[in-house]
Amino acid sequence: MIDGPYPVLAMLGALATGLMAGVFCAFSVLVMRGLAALPAAQGVAAMNAINSSAMAPAFMVPFLGVAVLCAMIAVVTFVLWPDHGTVHLLLGSALYLCGAFGVTVMANVPRNEALAKRDPASSEAVAYWPTYLREWTRWNHVRAVASAVAALVYALALI
User: Fold this and answer.
1) CA-to-CA distance for 82 and 6, rounded, in angstroms?
2) Could you list the residue ranges that cross the membrane (predicted)?
3) Other CB atoms closer than 10 Å to residue 78's CB: what's the count?
4) Is residue 1 one of the residues assigned to a domain?
């Protein structure tokens, strides 16, 4: 059993990454499927609107806050090196920071930016839409799984 600040950090990490896993999962299985069912021009316009609204504090604060929390857990764990749970705490942090935050920056955001440059009614946007849906959703699955496994690993640090 871990002691000191680690139980609280592990619990917060598990809850926070679990929350983000739910957001990413819901997006993949509900939102993207719904957008895929729309005519392409409408799907592009809706996704661009969603991406614009994702920049609001309602999403950015939790998304960035979880990344900061995971980085903090990693730094505290690395510096103080607890007797138990070290691997779990570091692995949970790495999973979220690389698999969710990193994937967002390196895969999802560039695709969002490419979509935003296209006029939704243009033939170019309509032609790009199926590729965007497939690639963006695939990377979103990675974010969902990485966040869920991070939550599990943080929880395992508690036992």
Assistant:
1) 8
2) 6-32, 53-81, 87-109
3) 12
4) no
State how far the Cα of 71 lies from the Cα of 54, in Å rounded to an integer. Answer: 22
For the segment 64-94, what is each residue's pLDDT rounded down to a tens digit? 999 999 999 999 999 988 888 899 999 999 9
Number of domains in the chain: 1
Query: Domain containing 51: what range?
Result: 6-156
Nearest to 148 by CA among 46, 27, 16, 42: 16
- In what helix (H) or strand (E) does residue 37 lie, and over which residues does it extend? none
Q: 151 Cβ partners below 8 Å, 6+ apart?
A: 13, 14, 15, 17, 18, 21, 92
Judge if pTM exceeds 0.85. Answer: yes
Q: Which two tokens stand for residue 27?
A: 């997006």
Specify whether the CB–CB gap between 19 and 154 falls below 8 A. no
